[in-house]
């Protein structure tokens, strides 16, 4: 996705590093420098798979599209559950494409497309089911971006098609307060095979429209001081997303439960939503 960072993207020691080294690169967490870490730390996760697979099985789709597919983790599991016969991964990351193609090397019926779902471009209405793993909806930080995502999903689905993705339950937003300014450092293996430390910090501001900032720092000797990384999200809740989806031509068909087991949010519940595309409002107005 395109990354308008917004105001005050960095905090605490990460902001101090940027002030001391003004030329240090500030990268998306999904760029190459952080890709090796995210692949090692996040992509083995499976906590979201059972709920998505159960919802997908209700639809019995032929063509499944994974929006924000990364290395194709969700599609890989759905294929092994026998769900769908044609699978398409969409992502704007070149690093994601490389890993996706490595994962599915030699397999048929699966393909990758480089697509930015926030950009205005025509996408054929070819999917029976669109899925998003983890809590990807939080990457769409404003109501306009959320509306754009829902419009994109509606456009790419065949008539009566479905979308399945996860959203935090309504009470969970308040739990994020406990993560405010939490920090740690964890080892990972970079693309050259060297062991490194990545420093991670998280900050949540409920009063600032559920603003969730995740900051990262990797030190490099050959590119001193290193690189800063950023994920900036908005913690959406079930009632908010269902209301917006209903206004954008979807109806809620079913819900399932998924419980987070990583990233400091262990034990926090998500609703896995199954939405069916119905009518499409001719001129939907932004919700306030």
From TrEMBL:
Q: Which CDD domains match?
A: AdoMet_MTases (cd02440)
Which terms are listed as keywords in the entry? Answer: Methyltransferase, Transferase
One GO biological-process annotation of the entry reads: methylation
Enzyme class (EC, first level): transferase
Is Methyltransferase one of the keywords?
A: yes
UniProt keyword Methyltransferase present: yes
One Gene Ontology molecular-function label: 3-demethylubiquinol 3-O-methyltransferase activity
What is this enzyme's EC?
Answer: 2.1.1.222, 2.1.1.64
Q: Which InterPro entries match?
A: Methyltransf_12, SAM-dependent_MTases_sf
Residue intervals passing through the bilayer: none
Source superkingdom: Bacteria
Domain Methyltransferase type, which positions? 65-162
Q: What is this protein called?
A: Class I SAM-dependent methyltransferase
Naturally occurring in which organism (per UniProt)? Streptomyces toxytricini
């Amino acid at each position: 996705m395109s990354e308008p960072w917004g105001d005050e993207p960095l905090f605490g020691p990460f902001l101090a590093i940027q002030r001391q080294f003004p030329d240090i690169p500030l990268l998306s967490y999904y760029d190459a420098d952080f890709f090796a870490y995210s692949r090692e730390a996040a992509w083995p996760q499976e906590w979201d798979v059972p709920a998505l697979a159960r919802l997908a099985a209700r639809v019995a789709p032929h063509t499944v599209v994974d929006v924000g597919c990364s290395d194709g983790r969700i599609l890989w599991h759905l294929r092994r559950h026998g769900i769908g016969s044609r699978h398409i991964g969409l992502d704007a990351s070149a690093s994601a494409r490389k890993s996706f193609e490595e994962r599915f090397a030699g397999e048929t019926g699966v393909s990758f497309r480089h697509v930015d779902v926030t950009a205005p471009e025509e996408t054929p209405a070819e999917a029976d089911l669109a899925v998003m793993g983890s809590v990807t909806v939080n990457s769409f930080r404003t109501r306009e971006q959320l509306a754009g995502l829902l419009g994109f999903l509606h456009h790419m689905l065949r008539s009566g098609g479905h979308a399945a993705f996860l959203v935090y339950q309504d009470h969970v937003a308040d739990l994020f307060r406990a993560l405010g300014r939490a920090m740690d450092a964890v080892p990972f293996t970079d693309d050259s095979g060297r062991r490194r430390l990545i420093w991670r910090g998280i900050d949540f501001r409920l009063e600032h429209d559920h603003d969730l900032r995740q900051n990262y720092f990797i030190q490099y000797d050959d590119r001193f001081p290193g690189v800063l990384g950023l994920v900036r999200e908005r913690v959406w809740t079930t009632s908010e997303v269902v209301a917006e989806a209903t206004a954008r031509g979807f109806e809620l068909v079913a819900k399932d439960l998924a419980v987070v087991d990583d990233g400091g949010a262990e034990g926090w519940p998500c609703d896995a939503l199954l939405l069916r595309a119905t009518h499409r409002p001719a001129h939907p107005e932004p919700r306030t």
